[in-house]
């Protein structure tokens, strides 16, 4: 579990979010929602110690974030940033990068590393093109490879920053389903997105960030019922019951 206690984040003297109190639980998908520039990505980077906090506490499985080494943090939290370069290497080699936190110099992969990589590729459906080169893949396939790399890292928490950007509808659904399956295996999944209907459909919990604060936190039904999403985004969000369960749509 990751606890955020009275946390304020930003850059230098500029505060973007302040007084954030929130818990990130295992076995749940937490989706961060909010307008552009509200601090979603900054919050993720601060949780990962990629960006210094301004004040407050971040507790990772009972230990203050600043007391963890870089390697210890990388063994507890995996991160998929919004923008990445695509190296000219094979899919299997890309996924192997997720094993770096467990290796010392010189890097030599062992049986545990290859086993973790093969399992991650099977779970994400990337094993069938394990020997293909990354630039040869579609955007959706590449995204699955990056998710496999994060999964191979063997952490209890996976943080995904807008993982469905530029993906087609099918690939977007695959990404949300993978996130849900990871939570089903006991991992905490934090996902940043702008897709409100899919977020409400697949999330276990929703955190709404706006105007420098945490405006709402709770189940999709609770957050939807509060009307906060309509106010924050200036939209009309509706729900309907279908044969496959509750669905949300925008007007």
CATH homology group: P-loop containing nucleotide triphosphate hydrolases
Report the CATH topology name.
Rossmann fold
Number of strands: 12
Distance between the termini: 36 Å
Q: Which strand order spans the largest sheet, edge to edge or round the barrel?
A: 6-7-8-3-9-10
Rg computed from alpha carbons, rounded to a whole number of angstroms: 18 Å
Give the H and E element order.
Answer: EEEHEEHEHHHEHEHEEHHEE
Q: Roughly what fraction of the amino acids lie in strands?
A: 25-35%
Q: Could you tell me the mean pLDDT?
A: 95
Q: How many domains comprise the coordinates?
A: 1
Q: Quickly count the helices.
A: 9
Query: What structural class is derived from the secondary structure elements?
Result: alpha/beta
Largest sheet: 6 strands, mixed
Uncertain regions: pLDDT < 50 for 5+ in a row? none
Q: Tell me, briefly, the overall form.
A: globular
Broad CATH class: Alpha Beta
Helix content: 25-40%
CATH architecture verdict: 3-Layer(aba) Sandwich
Quaternary structure state of the chains depicted = single chain
């Amino acid at each position: 579990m990751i606890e955020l206690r009275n946390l304020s984040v930003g850059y230098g003297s500029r505060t973007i979010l302040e007084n954030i109190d929130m818990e990130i639980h295992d076995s749940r998908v937490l989706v961060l929602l909010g307008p552009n520039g509200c601090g979603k990505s900054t919050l993720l980077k601060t949780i990962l110690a990629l960006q210094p906090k301004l004040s407050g506490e971040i507790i990772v499985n009972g230990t203050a974030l600043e007391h963890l080494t870089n390697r210890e943090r990388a063994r507890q939290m995996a991160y998929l940033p919004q923008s990445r370069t695509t190296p000219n290497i094979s899919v299997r080699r890309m996924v192997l990068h997720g094993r770096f936190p467990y290796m010392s110099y010189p890097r030599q992969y062992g049986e545990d590393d290859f086993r973790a990589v093969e399992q991650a590729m099977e779970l994400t459906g990337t094993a069938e093109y394990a020997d293909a080169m990354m630039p040869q893949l579609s955007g959706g396939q590449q995204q699955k490879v990056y998710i496999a790399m994060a999964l191979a890292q063997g952490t209890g928490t996976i943080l995904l920053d807008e993982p469905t950007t530029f993906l087609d509808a099918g690939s977007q659904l695959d990404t949300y389903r993978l996130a849900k399956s990871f939570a089903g295996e006991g991992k905490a999944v934090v996902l940043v997105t702008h897709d409100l209907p899919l977020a409400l459909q697949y999330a276990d919990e929703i955190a709404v960030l706006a105007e420098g604060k945490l405006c709402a936190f709770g189940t999709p039904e609770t957050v939807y019922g509060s009307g906060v999403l309509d106010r924050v985004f200036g939209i009309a969000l509706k729900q309907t019951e279908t044969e496959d369960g509750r669905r949300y749509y925008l007007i």
